[in-house]
Write a structure and sequence with these properties.
Layout lengths: L2 E9 L2 E5 L5 E5 L3 H13 L2 E5 L15 E3 L2 E5 L4 H20 L10 H21 E10 L6 H8 L4 E5 L7 H4 L5 H8 L4 E4 L2 H15 L2 E3 L2 E3 L5 E6 L6 H9 L1 H13 L5 E8 L6 H13 L8 E8 L6 H21 L7 E5 L4 H10 L2 E4 L8 H9 L6 E5 L12 E3 L4 H13 L2 H17 L2 H19 L2 H5 L4
Helix pairs in contact: 2-3, 3-4, 6-7, 8-13, 9-12, 10-11, 10-14
Bound molecules: 6-O-phosphono-alpha-D-glucopyranose (G6P).
Length: about 475
């Protein structure tokens, strides 16, 4: 049935998995994007187009029919093994991802990766065009699908199209390294509204459009030669704060948190890191900083433990394999050098966990450590705050995570500054109850007000309004710069 709201994202909210008995099953997909959009989908009765993970024999074979999972209407797009290699692992995650994250790793440029990116974007656009009702709203998500807005507009000019980028949008100096910079900008300009995490990203985009495509712009508006106006603005994403709070108050979760603390040997303080195993997350430097505090005796393994959860991610991409080996070695070395029997310095888990277990970990943790080199937002930081129903617990947060703009009361750190991180970890460890409460209360107020529903509302309201400026000649006639 044609849908009035269509979400287009690289991934579906569920991954197809083969169970041990050979039957097909589903499990939630990784990452912040899915966590954020799922509640919006439910509230709006939308249809979600995306990849269910894993290769399809023949992506056009129609082996993947639309289906319903957990009350959500899902339309799968199959990717062949080659498309996964070139479009997903290649252009999306080894070209765009590092460029958009401050060149934390070196990006690779390959023309055949780009060709596949174009082809796969066409596939998503065609599917969206076929399921959207007349005049429907289509909301396209993230860096894997930046060409879809323009392709979709060509196929279906009747649609209202929004695009939201979940990762940072880089400064012009980095973006312009991309040989396909102009095509990417034009792809995004197919949308009526282009949303970013932070105002800086929106400003970078508008500046690039002016410089590289040559369109007229004024503040957050871009004026296209065909008379359309595109708006670029910031909509900082958030979480289902009430949902996490309820989960953290659940008896089973509270009991599990106590069990975790006991299993760790009931230390005085538990430090916690939860990240996808990604080089942007700063896991290596963070663990080194922590280990140095033990070496110098400022922390003791009898009193404290660092639980690091690393969620497996993009394991076929070389940079991610290298990172995994580096972290494995570092943890082994730290525990070998500094641990005692039954008292490792770091309790390392390479696995993903359901929401309930995450909430139990957040509840058990005294100091949450989130230190990415660059991060669009970082929902883990917000989830921790939402789970601290007792207004306690400390958050050590990188100034380079989008979340730092809102969570000002965290211990903010520069993740490149190991001594600065050590000082912040110690301060957070030693902070008294009054200090913790003061900070946590303020952060909790912030995330309760700016939850994911408010985020989606703000974007949708703005998208609905954009039409007014679309053909408004008076707007185009003034204020051009
Ligand atoms: C980040 C990105 C998402 C992506 C997720 C998981 O949150 O913004 O677009 O889906 O990471 O990464 P993966 O490559 O497994 O989809």
């Amino acid at each position: 049935m044609p849908a009035d709201l269509v979400i287009v994202a690289n991934r579906l909210p569920v991954d197809r998995v083969t169970q041990p008995d050979g039957t097909q099953g589903w499990r939630p997909s990784p990452g912040g994007l899915v966590t954020a959009i799922e509640p919006v989908m439910r509230a709006n009765d939308g249809t979600w187009i995306g990849w269910p993970g894993g290769p399809s024999e023949d992506a056009d074979a129609g082996d993947l029919d639309p289906f319903e999972a957990d009350g959500l209407q899902l339309v799968p797009i199959g990717l062949t093994a080659e498309e996964i290699e070139l479009f997903y692992e290649g252009f999306s995650n080894a070209t765009i991802w590092p460029i958009y994250h401050d060149l934390v790793a070196k990006p690779e440029f390959h023309r055949e990766w780009w060709d596949s990116y174009v082809k796969v974007n066409e596939k998503y656009a065609a599917k969206a065009a076929s399921v959207a009702a007349e005049g429907a709203t289509v909301w396209v998500h993230d860096y894997q699908l930046q060409l879809v807005p323009q392709m979709l507009r060509e196929l279906r000019p009747d649609l209202r199209i929004g695009f939201y980028l979940h990762i940072p949008f880089p400064p012009a100096e980095l973006f312009q390294q991309l040989p396909w910079r102009r095509q990417l900008l034009e792809g995004l300009l197919g949308a009526d509204l282009v949303g970013f995490q932070l105002p800086g990203g929106a400003a970078n985009f508008v500046r690039l459009v002016r410089q590289r495509v040559g369109h007229k712009t004024h503040r957050d508006l871009v004026y296209l030669p065909d008379g359309r106006t595109v708006r670029a603005a910031a909509f900082p994403i958030s979480i289902d704060a009430a949902g996490f709070e309820a989960l953290a108050s659940d008896e089973a979760v509270v009991a599990r948190a106590a069990e975790i603390r006991e299993a760790l040997g009931s230390p005085r303080r538990i430090f916690l890191g939860i990240d996808r195993l990604d080089y942007t997350k700063g896991i290596y430097a963070r663990l080194r900083a922590y280990a140095e505090l033990i070496e110098t005796g400022e922390l003791d393994v009898e009193d404290a433990v660092f639980v690091q959860v690393a969620v497996p991610s993009r394991e076929q991409v070389e940079q991610y394999r290298i990172l995994r080996d580096e972290i494995d070695r570092l943890v082994g070395r730290i525990n070998g050098d500094l641990g005692r029997i039954g008292r490792p310095a770091i309790s390392y888990l390479h696995s993903s966990y359901p929401r309930e277990e995450m909430a139990a970990l957040y509840t058990a943790a005294d100091v949450m450590v989130v230190t990415p080199y660059r991060d669009g937002m970082n929902l883990v930081a917000k989830e921790y705050v939402a789970c601290r129903t007792g207004d306690d617990g400390a958050l050590v947060l990188s100034e380079f995570a989008g979340a730092a703009d809102e969570l000002r009361q965290a211990w903010l750190v520069n993740p490149y500054d190991i001594n600065g991180m050590k000082a912040a970890l110690l301060e957070a460890y030693r902070a008294d109850g009054k200090e913790l409460t003061r900070r946590m209360k303020a952060m909790r107020r912030t995330i309760k007000k700016h939850d994911v529903a408010a985020w989606a509302d703000a974007f949708m309201t703005e998208l609905a309004d954009v039409e007014h400026s679309t053909h408004a000649k008076s707007v185009r006639a003034v204020g051009r710069s």
